[in-house]
Structures are given as structure tokens and as C-alpha cells.
Amino acid sequence: MAAPFLIIKDMTMAYGDFVIQRDLDFTINRGDIFIIMGGSGCGKSTLLMHLIGLQRPAKGDVFYGEESLWQADEKTQRRILRRTGVLFQSGALLSSMTLSENIALPIAEHTSMGSQRIRELVSYKLALVGLAGFEDYYPSEISGGMQKRAGLARAMALDPEILFFDEPSAGLDPVSAKLLDDLIRSLRDNLGATIVMVTHELASIFAIGTNSVFLDPETKTMIAYGPPQKLLAESKDPKVIRFLTRDKAESQTPTATKIQEMSDV
User: Fold this and answer.
1) Where are the beta strands (DSSP E) in the chain?
2) CA distance 7 to 50
3) Residues 209 and 231 occupy one common structural domain
């Protein structure tokens, strides 16, 4: 049976008196590719900030295994979060540094490795994401998809047990997005990492998601929890169904239908 890894318990997220989400209760199991989804403004990225220690919940807690993140002292928090890696939406690479220097930064900061060992490790991480030989390139010299992969290599620099991605496919063409999905699945399978991913991309949700939570901006709480394919097949909530079938709905617009009719003539 799957082992619980991250437990979100009775969480409320708020800015002052303005509540973003309330009553969040769900579990992310070890080995999941867990999708946080929902409409614009529902608090997906805000939830991610709560999970990685950047924003304290108004109520509730996050447990890494049996350890509370938000009841822990600062030293314990740092130790817990050392188990994580984060890929932000923009990639967040430092433009003045080469890819090698970007990836070496957290290794040099948090370990006592020598420079030669760090260079070897950086080359290995870049090779894992298909960027072998690009150590001396600057972010501006590579494509958007390659920047995302370089950001992923940096997120993996310290061999985290759990990786957090914020809209990893944003701004990528369909082919690059598919390659990134394949890479994410490969990292989960080959390295044993647990993945938590904020996304609205249906192709990614159904291709690699093993479990998910759906946040609703109107009721300000979670209204669905489970594998995306199961939610599509079994959910009775019209908001969930509309979100998970929107590509199909768009393909049935009058213009699309007319084009199909013309092609059948």
C-alpha cells in the first residue's frame, strides 16, 4: 500500500481577513505525481507556498511524515525542507550565471563538497534532464523548454525526496510540454521522487497525474480529491466535469463543427 508522505490537515489559507481556501484535508503518498488543479484564482500557487514553507497557514498544518512543518522550530523546518526541491513557473535561473553555476549554487551552499566533486555532480544532473554538454551556456542562450529542464536540474541538486513544480509547462509548445511530462515521469520512476505539480494543462493532468485535488474559488475549498481519470469518470460536480472536459467542449464550438462538416463533404 502507498505510504503517506505529505499530509495537509484542516488548512485555511488567507491574506488577513480574506480567505483563499479553507478546510483543506488531503494526503500525498510517496511516489505520487500529485496534481493541484482548479480555475484561475483558486489558490493553487498559494497552496504550493504553504507546502514549501514560504507562507504560514492561517489555520491547520502540513506534515512531512509525522513531523509538523509549521509547529517546528526554525532549525527543524530547515532540515525538513532540505528534503524538497522546487521548480518555479519561470524556471528562476539566475541570468548572470551559467547553467553549471546555477545548479552548483545550492550544492555549494548546503554541502561541504569540493569544487571538482560539485562539477561532476552538476554534469550528472544536467545529463539527467537531457542537457549534457550545456554546462557553460547562459539561460539566455537556450530555449524556454531547455530553461525549464535546467531549472529542474537545479531543483534536483540536493537529491530531494519530493519535488514541487509550479506550472512547469507554462509557455511551452505542445511538443516541449510532452517531453517535459515524460521527463517528470521518468524522474519519479527512476529516482523514486514524489512529485507535486500545480497545473491547468489537461494533457499533463491525464498523462502523468496519479492523484489530485481540485480547489474551487467560489466555495473556497476543495471539492474533489482522487486520481484525475477517476474524477473524470465518476465525479458528479459540474465544475469538476467542466474543467476536465474543456478541451472536448472547445472542439465542439460552431466553428470547429462547421470545419468538420466541410471536411466530411
Assistant:
1) 4-15, 18-29, 33-38, 59-64, 67-68, 84-87, 162-166, 194-198, 211-216, 221-225
2) 12
3) yes
Residue pLDDT, tens place only, 26-48: 999 999 999 999 988 899 999 99
The pLDDT confidence band at residue 251, using thresholds 50, 70 and 90, is very low
In a shared domain, residues 40 and 166: yes
Smallest CA-to-CA distance from 191 within 23, 20, 7, 33 is with 33
Provide CB contacts within 8 A for 151, sequence distance 6+.
87, 88, 91, 92, 93
DSSP 130-183: T-TT-TT--GGGS-HHHHHHHHHHHHTTT--SEEEEESTTTT--HHHHHHHHHH
Are 72 and 167 part of one and the same domain?
yes
Q: Is 71 helix (H, G, I), strand (E, B) or coil?
A: coil
Same domain, 170 and 221: yes
Cα separation of 185 and 18, whole Å? 37
Q: d(Cα 115, Cα 82) in Å, to the nearest integer?
A: 21
Domain residues for 93? 87-159
Work out the number of other CB atoms within 10 angstroms of the CB of residue 55: 14
